[in-house]
Structures are given as structure tokens and as C-alpha cells.
């Protein structure tokens, strides 16, 4: 573990700084749009543009890396992200901000691809799991800490945008000064989406709902806090402790799912997500600041919210041949990303109709729908034996390249393209 950490410590430092920047920018923009009087639905569209850029970048950024190399692409995307952050201050309108969010999402896809390719190159078959866990912990830890940068200044000014830009620029240093040779990217491998659905409807559906709900919370959670009276500390706590909850609860839920039917754990997490979200909404509305009760509820709420994706991924992996794992995992990340793009738009429409609590109605409604669908599968399809399962693994939802790090994979391969042609299913669907 120590030797694995030493070999990637510089990269993890860059990831941490980068996560502080992009993790804070989303919250800053959501609160600023509320202050500027942007309509809720407009805010949802602007925030969804980031996830759309992330999807497009995940599918196309590898071409740039192959053309000019990792270091040049990382430097170019980090610089562009830094510049786009500052441009927000000069053009405060939804059209400009939507375009900038798309650019920022595209840049982050390229940055994730570079970092994750480097991490995979540094990892061995024996250290993959440790490297992936350290990477996941870094992204969640610094993503949670990033939310508290909101208390450093007024959202109406230039200072907080400048802080974000500086962080994006500083993330360049550990990578630009690295003496390690840049890794090569494998050729793309195709895995049919229809085949993926045939193998694991719960896996695909769970990843999609995880994208819908977490995308909506990331994009509109800060706005919910702003319009319900939370101050900067309260908004930071709402977002930060939810992310910390994702870090704390994933492994216990994952280990539980190794012992019993994973689908039942998904059902339980979905139901609890709806319950915690409903109670949290009722407590926060009208409050002037976050209290200890809010923080106690936000932790398990975030834990259930961010556990859905790795649980769904683990369930799908139980039914996928090891040689197909990387390509199939790429499809599941794509399913998550599409859901994350739709979530902010759909949730903002509901918030427009029913008020701020519409965010948690949206999240809770989809969580209950997922629980109902998975319960139907439990009643109609038997559970796998414990010996047939793959061990649960902490997994971030970043870019397609992260699938190569997962120790459950037997091959080093990436998947950036997907076909919709069906093929015979070789294993029992679940």
C-alpha cells in the first residue's frame, strides 16, 4: 500500500487540487445563478451542459491524447478550464454560462482520461485495487472539502472565481513536472448497449437512475439551499457532508452486498434515499442555517445517493465475463452520464412547479421507482450464489478510463464507442 501510494502521490496531489477547483465551481455557479435571479429551469439547463460536455469529452477526448500526448492535452484542458472559469464573471447570462459549462465538462473528461491513464500505467495487477481506492478517496475527500471554499467570499464578486481558476492552474504542476513517460492508450473496443441491457437490466437501470439523482443534486442542491434560506456555511455543509457520506457509506454497503443479494441492498439504499431526502427537505425549508440535525441526515442521504452507482456496477459485473468487463463498464458509465445530463433539467422543471422541495421529490421518486423495478427482478429472477459474485470495489464515476484500473478486469482495454446491435446473451440476465 505504501509503495503504491508513493508511486502515485504526485498524481493524487494533482487530482486533489483539480477536484477542489471543479468541485467548487459547480456549487459557486448554482448559488450565483440564484442570486442573479436565473429561473430554476434555466439554472438546470446551464448545469446540465456540464454533464453533456463530460459525455462528449469521454467519447472523443482520447483522439486528442493519441494525437499530441498526455502532458500537452492535460496542460491544454487545464488552461482552458481555468480561462473558462474567469469568463463567467464577464458574461453573466445563461447562454454564455451554458456554453462555458459544456466546455468545462469537456475539459474535465480529458483531464480525467489523462490522470486515469497515468494511474493505470503506474498500477500493477497486485496494486490496482489499492490505487483505485486511493483515487476514489481523493476525489470524494477533496470534492467534499471544495464545498467549504464557498465561505471565503461573496458569490457576487470576482474573488471566488479567481480562486477556482488558480486551483485549476496549480493542478498542472504535479503532471507537468512529472519525469515519468506518458502511457499509451489502448485501442477502443466495442460493446453493444442492447447486449448490456440483456445481461443486466438492474445494472444499466441502476446506473442511469444514479446519474439522474446525483446529477440533479450536484446541479441544484446549492440552489435548494440558497432559496430555502441557508447561508454560505449551510450550503457548503449541505453539499460537503453529502459527498463525505458517499465516501463513508460506500464500502459498508458494498461489503454487505457481497454477503446477500446485491439487489436487496440496492432496494434498501433506494428506499432510505427517498426517506432521508424527504425528511431533509422538510427540516431545511425555512431554516436560516444548517443545524446538527441537517448534517446528521445529509451524511446518510449522501451515502445512499452515491452508493447506487457502485452497487449497480458491482451487480452488473457479477453477470459479465471478465474479458468483457472494461467494455461493459464503459457502457455503464455512459448510462450514468446520460442520466446525469437529463437529471438537472428534469428536476429543475419539477422545482419550478412545486417549489424547492421538488428536488427531493424528484430524487425520491426515481429512488422509489428503482426500488420497485429491482424488487420485481428479485421476485422473478433468482439470486446468484455468493461464490459466483465478484468482490465489491470502490469506484468513482469519472471517465471511461477509470474502468481499466478496476482489479476485476482481466484485460487492459478501453471502450469509447458503443453499438446498438443485439447479440445472444450467454449468461443469465438479472
Q: What would you note in describing this structure?
A:
Helix 5 (128-146) runs antiparallel to helix 10. The chain has a single domain, classed as Growth Hormone, Chain: A. 58% of the residues are buried. The chain is an all-alpha fold. The chain has 14 helices and no strands. The radius of gyration is 20 Å and the shape is globular. The chain is 73% helix and 0% strand.
| Total number of strands | 0
CATH homology superfamily name: MFS general substrate transporter like domains
Distance between the termini: 35 Å
Q: Which strand-content bin applies to the residues?
A: under 5%
Q: Give the assembly state of these chains.
A: single chain
In CATH, the topology is named Growth Hormone, Chain: A
Biggest beta sheet attributes: none
Lay out the secondary structure.
Layout: H1 2-36, H2 40-68, H3 70-90, H4 94-122, H5 128-146, H6 159-170, H7 172-176, H8 193-199, H9 201-227, H10 232-259, H11 262-284, H12 292-317, H13 325-354, H14 358-380
Helix pairs in contact: 1-4, 1-5, 1-6, 1-9, 2-3, 2-4, 2-9, 2-13, 3-4, 3-6, 5-10, 8-9, 9-10, 9-12, 9-13, 9-14, 10-11, 10-12, 11-12, 11-14, 13-14
What is the structure about, briefly put?
Helix content is 73%, strand content 0%.
Feature tags:
mainly alpha; 430 residues; globular; 0% strand; Growth Hormone, Chain: A; 73% helix
Amino acid at each position: 500500500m505504501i509503495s503504491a501510494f508513493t508511486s502515485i502521490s504526485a498524481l493524487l496531489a494533482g487530482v486533489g487540487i483539480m477536484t477542489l477547483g471543479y468541485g467548487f465551481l459547480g456549487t459557486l455557479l448554482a448559488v450565483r445563478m440564484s442570486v442573479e435571479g436565473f429561473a430554476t429551469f434555466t439554472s438546470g439547463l446551464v448545469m446540465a451542459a456540464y454533464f453533456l460536455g463530460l459525455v462528449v469529452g469521454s467519447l472523443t477526448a482520447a483522439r486528442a491524447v493519441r494525437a499530441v500526448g498526455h502532458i500537452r492535452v492535460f496542460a491544454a484542458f487545464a488552461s482552458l478550464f481555468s480561462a473558462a472559469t474567469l469568463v463567467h464573471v464577464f458574461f453573466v447570462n445563461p447562454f454564455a454560462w451554458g456554453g462555458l459549462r459544456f466546455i468545462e465538462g469537456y475539459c474535465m473528461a480529458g483531464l480525467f482520461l489523462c490522470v486515469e491513464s497515468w494511474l493505470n500505467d503506474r498500477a500493477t495487477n497486485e496494486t490496482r485495487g489499492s490505487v483505485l481506492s486511493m483515487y476514489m478517496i481523493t476525489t470524494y475527500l477533496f470534492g467534499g472539502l471544495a464545498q467549504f471554499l464557498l465561505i471565503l467570499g461573496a458569490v457576487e464578486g470576482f474573488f471566488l472565481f479567481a480562486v477556482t481558476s488558480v486551483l485549476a492552474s496549480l493542478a498542472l504542476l504535479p503532471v507537468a513536472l512529472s519525469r515519468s513517460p506518458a502511457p499509451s492508450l489502448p485501442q477502443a473496443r466495442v460493446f453493444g448497449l442492447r447486449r448490456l441491457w440483456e445481461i443486466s437490466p438492474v445494472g444499466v437501470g441502476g446506473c442511469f437512475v444514479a446519474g439522474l439523482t446525483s446529477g440533479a443534486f450536484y446541479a441544484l442542491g446549492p440552489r435548494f439551499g440558497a432559496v430555502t434560506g441557508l447561508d454560505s456555511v449551510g450550503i457548503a455543509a449541505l453539499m460537503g457532508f453529502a459527498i463525505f457520506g458517499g465516501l463513508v457509506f460506500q464500502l459498508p454497503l458494498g461489503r454487505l452486498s457481497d454477503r446477500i443479494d446485491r439487489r436487496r441492498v440496492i432496494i434498501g439504499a433506494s428506499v432510505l434515499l427517498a426517506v432521508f431526502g424527504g425528511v431533509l427537505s422538510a427540516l431545511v425549508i425555512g431554516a436560516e442555517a444548517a443545524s446538527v440535525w441537517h448534517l446528521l441526515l445529509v451524511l446518510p442521504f449522501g451515502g445512499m445517493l452515491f452508493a447506487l452507482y457502485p452497487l449497480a456496477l458491482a451487480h452488473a459485473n457479477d453477470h459479465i465475463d471478465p474479458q468483457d468487463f472494461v467494455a461493459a463498464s464503459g457502457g455503464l458509465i455512459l448510462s450514468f452520464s446520460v442520466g446525469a445530463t437529463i437529471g438537472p433539467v428534469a428536476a429543475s422543471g419539477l422545482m419550478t412547479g412545486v417549489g424547492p422541495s421538488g428536488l427531493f421529490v424528484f430524487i425520491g421518486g426515481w429512488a422509489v421507482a428503482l426500488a420497485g423495478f429491482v424488487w420485481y427482478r428479485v421476485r422473478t429472477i433468482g439470486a446468484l450464489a455468493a461464490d459466483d459474485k465478484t468482490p465489491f470495489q470502490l469506484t468513482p464515476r469519472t471517465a471511461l478510463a477509470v474502468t481499466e484500473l478496476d482489479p476485476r478486469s482481466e484485460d487492459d482495454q478501453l471502450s469509447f464507442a458503443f453499438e446498438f446491435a443485439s447479440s445472444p446473451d450467454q449468461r443469465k440476465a438479472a
